[in-house]
Write a structure and sequence with these properties.
By secondary structure, the chain is an all-alpha fold. Helix content is 75%, strand content 0%. The chain starts with 8 loop residues before the first helix and ends in a 9-residue tail after the last helix. It binds fe (ii) ion (2 copies). One fe (ii) ion binds next to helix 2, helix 4 and helix 5.
Length: 153
Amino acid sequence: MASIDRCDPVILGHVLAEHQDLFNRLTTARRTFAAEAPPHPAERAALQACLSSLRDHLQEHFLLEEQGGFLEESVARMPRLGPAMAAIVAQHPTLLAELDTIIASLSSSTLSAMAWQQAGQAFAGFAAHMTAHERSENAVVQEGYNEDLGLVD
Ligand SMILES: [Fe+2]
Ligand SMILES: [Fe+2]
């Protein structure tokens, strides 16, 4: 069993792997959104599938975090991190709703150039919010374990 002062490598591995996976999924979608013209139907369907998969994955990821795990463990080790953890968990429904709005905006039968650009901007905003969210989680874990885990820039 890991000492209270040492980082549990299983927990650290989980944080890094989960957040890296989310980052990869965001990057894949961002590449498609970089196109200036609305995508062809097959490409749009692939993007929608990618976003739906990201949505499912995120929901699962958030549930795991809410059910206890590295965040809860960090707060148990350092109770003053409780408010930061509560603020992080409170962002989960907002982030999911943001992504739902983007997915819905892509499902109309015709997608104008304007609608495509707006969806791209909305996705850029969502990606920025997700990145800030994960960064604040990494900061809580790093502080909770009282150790420089190399998780925060
Ligand atoms: Fe989270
Ligand atoms: Fe997370």
